[in-house]
Amino acid sequence: MKNFFRKINDGLQPLRENKVAQEIIFWASCIVTLAFIIVTWITKTKLFLIGSGVGFLGIIFYFLLNPQMFKETAAEISSDKKRREGISVGLRIIIAIAIVVALMIILNGKLPKIDLTSANIYSISKESKELVKSLNEPLTIIYFTTSQNLESPQGQIVKRILELYKKNSKNIKFEIIDLNKRPELATQYGINEDGSVYLSYKDRIKILSSMDFWEVKEAADQMSQGKQLFIAEKLISSAIRYLMASQGVKIYFILGHKEKYTNDYQDDGISTAAEYLGKIDREVININLLEKGSIPDDASLLVIAAPKEDYSPSELEIVKKYIDNGGKFLLLTDFECYNVNVIEMILKKFDIIQQQGVVADDSHYYQGLGNFYPVIELSYHKITQKIQEYNKPVLVSTAAPLIINPQTPKSTDFNIISLGTTYDTAWNEITKDNDFKKEPQYDENKETKGVKHLGFVVEDAVKKNQNGDNIPYGLILCDSDLLSNKILKLGNSTGNILLLDSSVNFMVDDT
Q: In what order do the strands lie in the sheet with 139-145?
C-alpha cells in the first residue's frame, strides 16, 4: 500500500513543480464551482450541483498539491509583507467560496430566484403575491398529473408556479397527485384531464384544464403564424379571485313541462350532468316559473332542458323578458320538442329552424350504434377546442334537425356561430314514428338532405368582454341526449363531458 501511494506521489511531483499548471487548475476549478452554483441558484435544478462538486474537487486537488501553502499563508499574515499586500490570493478565494456555501446552507435555498425566460414563466407577479397573502382561510391546490406529464417542460413550469403561490402564503396547501397511482381520486374530484389544477376555498371549487394554460394570439395578417402564450399564472390568479368572491355561479333549471330533470337517475335523465356541475362549483337550482313568477337576479345561466309541453303565456313572457334583457341561457331541444312554443319562440328570435323529424344518416354514422347516431364534424370554437385536441367523438342520438333560416338576412344585433355539423348525407327522418330499431329510408318527397347543426352559440354583436371578444348570451344544442346519464357515464371515451364542461364555463365565465 505504501508503494502505491509513493508511486502516486512521485507521479504528481512534475505537477507540483509546474506552477503555471497549478494556477490553471485552481482558477479553472474556482470558475467551474461558482458558475454551477449560480446556475443551480437560478434554475433550481439540483443536477447542476454535480458540476459544482467537480469544481470543488479541483480546488481540493490544488491544495493537495500545495500543502505548504497553509504554512506560508499563516507566516504571511504575521509578516510585514502581508500587512503591505493583504491576504494571499488563495486564502481570499477560500474565504469567498466559504461565504457562498455558508449563505446557501443558512438560507436553505430561499435565495431570490432570477427568471431569465422571456415570458417570466418561472416567477409570479407582485399582484399575484399580494393576492395570495390576502387569503384569510386555507386554500387547497392539487395538481393532478401523471409522472410523464410532470417531467415535461410544461409540467415542471406549472409545478414551479404553484410552489411559488404556496411560498407566498401560509394559507395555501399544495400537493401533487399521480393519476396513474390514484385514478379513483380523479373521479372523486371531477378531473378529466392530465395536468388539471384543482382549487378549493371555503365551500367553493374551481378546476383548471392544462389546455387552458396556453393562449393562441392571432397573427397580424393571414400570412403570419400565430403565437402561443403561456398564461398559467393569469388563469390561476383569476381562479383564486373567483373563489374569494362572495357570489357563486347559480344555474337555474326550469321544471313543469316534462323537461329533463336534474334528479332523474334513469338513462335519459341528466342527474350526472347536475352532479358534475356541482363538482366544479356550479350551484344547480330547479325553478318553477309559475310558482316563482320571475327568474332570480342572481341567475348566471338559465337552462331549458327539452320541454315536451307548451309554456303558459305568463311563463313565455318571463323567459322572453329574461333573454331580451341579456340573460344567459342554454336551450336543449329534441325531435320530440318540435312545435313546443318556448323553443319555437327562442329559435325564431335567432333565425334558427327546427325541422320536423329526427336526424338520420345512412353514410356517416357510428357503426354498431345505428343511423340515428350521425358523425359530427366540429367547428373550431372555445367550446369545442378541448374536444378536438383530445380527438374525442361527440355522440348525438335521435337529435333534432337544426338549420339556419336561409331567408333571413344577417342580424346586426347578434352573431350565430355553429359548433359543428353532420355531413350533407344527413336528413330529417319523419316516417318512422319513433321506431329507431329499423334502418331509416330517405323519402325525397317528405324529407330534406343536407347538413344539420350540432348547436349554436349566440353572441352579442356589439358588446365585448375584457378580452375584446363578443359576449355570449345563448347556447342552443340539438339533443338533450348529449348530456344524458347514458352518454355521460361513458366517461372520457366520448367528448360529451368536455362539451358540458366547456359549454357551461364558456357561458358563465366569458363576460
A: 172-178, 139-145, 196-201, 204-208
First to last CA, the chain: 80
Residue type (1 letter), 486 = K
- Cell numbers for 18, please give them: 509546474
CA atoms within 13 A on the CB side of 430: 14
Q: Please provide residue 141's backbone torsions phi and psi, each rounded to the nearest 5 degrees.
A: -120, 125
- The single-letter code of the amino acid at 218 is E
Position 154 scores a pLDDT of: 86
83 vs 391, residue with greater confidence: 391
- Domains annotated for the chain, with CATH where assigned, are 2-107 (no CATH), 126-242 (3.40.30.10), 247-509 (3.40.50)
Average pLDDT over residues 433-450: 86
Range scoring the smallest mean pLDDT among 47-61, 150-164, 277-291: 47-61
Which DSSP state fits 303?
E
- Sequence-distant (≥ 6) Cβ neighbours of residue 210 within 8 angstroms: 149, 154, 158, 193, 194, 195, 196, 197
Tell me the C-alpha distance between 481 and 358, whole Å.
Answer: 13
Say what the pLDDT of residue 192 is.
83
pLDDT at 44: 56
DSSP symbols for 137-169: S-EEEEEEE-HHHHHSHHHHHHHHHHHHHHHT-
406 touches 450 (CB < 8 A): no
Cell numbers that stand for 449 in this block: 338532405
Closest C-alpha among 291, 287, 264 to residue 275? 264
Q: What digits encode the pLDDT tens for the residues 293-318?
A: 999 999 999 999 999 999 999 999 99
pLDDT above 90 for 343? yes
Q: 205 Cβ partners below 8 Å, 6+ apart?
A: 190, 198, 199, 243, 279, 280, 281
Run of H or E residues at 200:
strand 196-201
Cα distance between residue 317 and residue 179, in whole Å: 49
Cβ neighbours of residue 454 closer than 8 Å, sequence gap 6 or more: 376, 378, 394, 396, 418, 419, 420, 421, 477, 478
- The number of C-alpha atoms within 13 Å of 199 and in the hemisphere containing its C-beta is 23
Residue whose cell numbers read 392544462: 210
Q: Are residues 93 and 62 in contact, defined by beta-carbon separation less than 8 angstroms?
A: no
- How far apart (Å, rounded) are the C-alpha atoms in residues 71 and 298? 83
Q: What is the SS3 assignment for 311?
A: coil
